[in-house]
Design goal:
- The chain has 309 residues and is mainly α.
- The protein has one domain (9-308): Up-down Bundle (Rhopdopsin 7-helix transmembrane proteins), CATH 1.20.1070.10.
- Helices cover 74% and strands 3% of the residues.
- It has ten helices and three strands, in the order βααβαααβααααα.
- It has helices spanning 19-49, 56-82, 92-125, 130-133, 136-162, 179-183, 191-222, 228-256, 266-285, 290-308; strands at residues 9-12, 89-91, 171-172.
- Strands 2-1-3 form a three-stranded mixed beta sheet.
- Helix 1 (19-49) crosses helix 10 and helix 3 (92-125) runs parallel beside helix 7 (191-222).
């Protein structure tokens, strides 16, 4: 429990105080969450079960899909459940736990997207050394580093919040616990902690985004010497990754790379990176990829034949 805290539970205002509107929103979130789990789960199963998808890109994609499912699961199920209750509440311990996992999976996703940009850089700019540079061991280490980076980021954010006393009020204008809304409830001077939180989240975002931009600057420069067909193939793969990067980084930057204040738009922006990006991930990365679609068809065919037997 946070030090000297009288608050034991926190109330969410959610999207609306109208119970009927909130139930409609809950049904929408339930449909979106189901699609996220099914779509990203299908990617994980397909990459794991298909012997032909051995490229590191698919290895990283399977972990990205796993993180997307976990990330969305931190907030969506509680929103769906709470929308059918008259009182949307979470314990203070539960709130801090939600912040921990939100930033754990969010930080891991940032690092995974950076790793995937490096993978594309090696594949396009150093094709002769690709197999050596991106062998299975290296890929495993990069994924492990992404998880470790997300964990360190989350521990830092959660530790800063954990030290604060909460004396009341206990109402936040959001649908889940996050650092900025919760900071407003603290009954102590939060200037230094707010600054550290911004530095923690901002430094990760800035460094990762700079790495992404550097990778694609080099990639675009190297494509000038390629054939038209080679450029189209490389740009198609990179465009998918850049689309996900933009959908995730831009709204996250709006929320976390500014002074610790809450804005009415924060709830809508949060939906974009906690729900919309995980929802579009399968469409952007996989359903536009012929190799992935063929692998999915083969997997479904094998499943149908096995069930018939």
């Amino acid at each position: 429990m946070a030090a000297a805290s009288n608050v034991t539970e926190i109330l969410f205002l959610g999207f609306s105080q109208n119970q009927n509107v909130q139930k409609v929103i809950s049904v929408i979130f339930l449909l979106l969450y189901t699609a996220i789990v099914l779509g990203n789960g299908l990617i994980v199963v397909t990459v794991t079960a298909s012997k032909g998808l051995t490229c590191p890109m698919y290895f990283f994609l399977s972990y990205l899909s796993l993180v997307e499912m976990c990330y969305c699961s931190v907030t969506a199920p509680k929103l769906i459940f709470d929308s059918f209750l008259r009182k949307r509440v979470i314990s203070l311990r539960g709130c801090i736990t939600q912040i921990f996992f939100l930033h754990f999976f969010g930080g891991t996703e940032i690092f995974l997207l950076t790793v995937m940009a490096y993978d594309r850089y090696v594949a396009i700019c150093k094709p002769l050394h690709y197999v050596t540079l991106m062998n299975r061991r290296v890929c495993g280490l990069l994924v492990g580093a992404a998880w470790a980076g997300g964990l360190l980021h989350s521990v830092g954010q959660t530790f800063l919040i954990f030290q604060l006393p909460f004396c009341g009020p206990n109402v936040i204008d959001h649908y889940f616990c996050d650092v900025h809304p919760v900071l407003k409830l603290a009954c102590s001077d939060t200037f230094l902690i707010s600054l550290l939180i911004i530095l923690n989240g901002g430094s990760i975002s800035v460094v990762s985004f700079a790495g992404l931009l550097a990778s694609y600057a080099v990639i675009l420069s190297s494509l000038r010497s390629r054939t038209a067909q080679g450029r189209r193939k490389a740009l198609s793969t990179c465009a998918s990754h850049l689309a996900v990067v933009g959908l995730f980084f831009i709204p996250c930057s709006f929320v976390y790379m500014r002074p610790c204040v809450t804005l009415p738009a924060d709830k809508i922006v949060a939906v974009s990176y906690t729900v919309i990006t995980p929802l579009l991930n399968p469409v952007i990365y996989s359903f536009r990829n012929a190799e992935m679609k063929n692998a999915m068809r083969r997997l479904v065919s094998r499943t149908v034949i096995w069930e018939e037997k």
